[in-house]
Amino acid sequence: MESTAGTFKENAKQALADAKLRDALAKLSDGFPVKRRDAAARLPEFDDLCDQAKAIKEHVLENLGFYLEAFEARVTEAGGTVHWCRSAAEARTTILRICKQAGAKTVTKSKSMISEEIAINEHLETHDVEPVETDLGEYIIQLRHEPPSHIIAPAIHLTKDQIADTFREKHSHLDAARNLEEPETLLEEARGELRRKFIAADVGLTGANMLVAETGSIVLVTNEGNADLTYSLPKTHIAIASLEKIVPTLEDATTILRVLARSATGQDMSVYTTFCTGPKRAQDLDGPEDFHVVLLDNGRTKMLGTEFHDMLRCIRCGACLNHCPIYKAVGGHAYGWVYSGPMGAVLIPNLIGLDEAHHLPNASTLCGKCEEVCPMRIPLPRMLRSWRKKQFEQEKTSFVSRTALKAWAALARRPWLYRLAVAAPIAVLALLGREKGRFRWLPLGGGWTSLRDMPAPEGGTFISRWHKERQP
Amino acid sequence: MSETPARSISVGLFATCLVDLTRPSVGFASAKLMEDAGCRVSVPQAQSCCGQPAYNAGDNADAAAIAANVIGAFEGFDYVVAPSGSCAGMIKHHFVGLFEDDPVMAARAGALSAKTHELISFLTDVLQVDGIECAYDGTVTYHDSCSSLREMKIKDQPRALLSRVSGLSLKESEESETCCGFGGLFCVKYPDISGHMVDAKVDDILATGADTLLAGDLGCLMNMAGRLHRRGSEVRVRHIAEVLAGMTDGPAIGAPAPLDTDKDKN
Asked: Is the ipTM value over 0.90, yes or no?
């Protein structure tokens, strides 16, 4: 998708002024975080499991080539094909080629952030293949021509009423007077529309929550069962996954499953968890005849061994988004590209470049909540600082802010000079602010005083007053 | 103090730039609390800031130069204490990483890290202070600043001490652990988002019905006080050290200075 990350600040301003978005995001605060907390509390070994899950991914990243080749060998033995793709463009070409070979007119899709990353829908559409999103949230935003705003809840930015309006507009063949008050009614309607698409689809395109090297299986986790219909009904199943999704064994996959749903939605397990291994075998009653795995790099291997290496442990649970006060304020679209929240702020500059994504690492208070809830213990604040360091070193920050920072630092590193420099301004501010105790406006202080008063200084500096009082 | 142990611990008080420049009374309150617990408190003149504005802006070279100053000024004390989880956290957790290519400085930073504490947890966890002889007439709510809570693991310590203050009742807010939106330079770089966050915070504070807001970090306090005042709230805002030291005669943060008492702040 086209990035609008460069205008994050404006995006955020718009988002903050959007009353419907405010209503929609308000749900987030009482929903996922509370459920996650309760789910973790119900499982005494949750923290230990997180440590184990982290260790699994650390081991995998140290031995990525080994496990990926083992995975490919198992997929091939099972009768499937692995396609190695360095870039989004290669992945798009590969998927389109498979679709064309299958004579596909319709491709059903289950939710996949990688498919968003490579913008496969637009590519298929321009080549006369119709992609149909089958996850309810993805289906809704596809109707509205919007990108997802959350990695596990793509339509979280919408209220129920907005969804009802969209259904009335797009499902114009249905009775206009029908009742769409209840979420269940909306779900039923989408289910009815999608059923025909599932039957008609020539190719099913899924993501993969994990790839299992031991068996050549892909793991699909959903709450709606749509991935199962997506992969099992058409003749061809294509799974697309970025290469860090690999885990060594089925046992490892279950360890990660135990932290994934709990961290994401607070469920002990997602409703559907499916292991797909190869195409339909002779004795199988159903399943795809062709099984393809598109393995995408798209910048991941470049992150190995860098300060962003740990980001490759991410299992896309969304906990960092759900708990991030910035995400909860502005929503996912403000981040301007496929991912959002703290994981997006770290990952997006890796994938589309720091110049375009320059705001994202800075739009954080580094409050640390994301790292606290991350089941894979990813040090997200540390990596946000790493991006800021790169920006500063590459002189990508604004001249004014650099100069101001340098001038301040020149004083701060010389405490005696600093004492001399601060004395007069503090004395003046203290004098001017004495009567009211605060300022409603300060020169150059608009960022602060547009919404807050600035408390006036008490007068004198602590250090000068201390030394005056203690050493008369 | 219920008892003053026979000890003579030397403490270097890292005042923090915000206390130094805007609210010296927090520095005096911090010194009083530690002196009452038997410490010898010194305030080295060669201090300005912990370097966090530079560090969080990616300017590690300046942050390292400032850190080197702090290390030189404070490494002679038994302990280094700051009335701020954020600044103490900077010294404790981030200084070492600034000297990756300088093993000598890294070792000195590591030694300083080991003896650096945030004020309230220093009182409870190191000095084992459990009694506080002071009074505060009011209902307070306490904000857990992000650095205090997550970097310095401070949660129960301030509450334990506040429970000993006579006349004080604590009313917890729902979102006491949620960031107030200050974030250092964040609040001026992204004022719209920061403003939204502090507004939510103010709603949460007002919902408690408390008449006083306390926290252990002046940056957060100034941010929340500023928004409370802009919204016309009468909630008094103070650093927790002021209450624990019984030094609440002076005006609260952002409150006008009564003309007759302004000579008598400390």
From this structure: yes
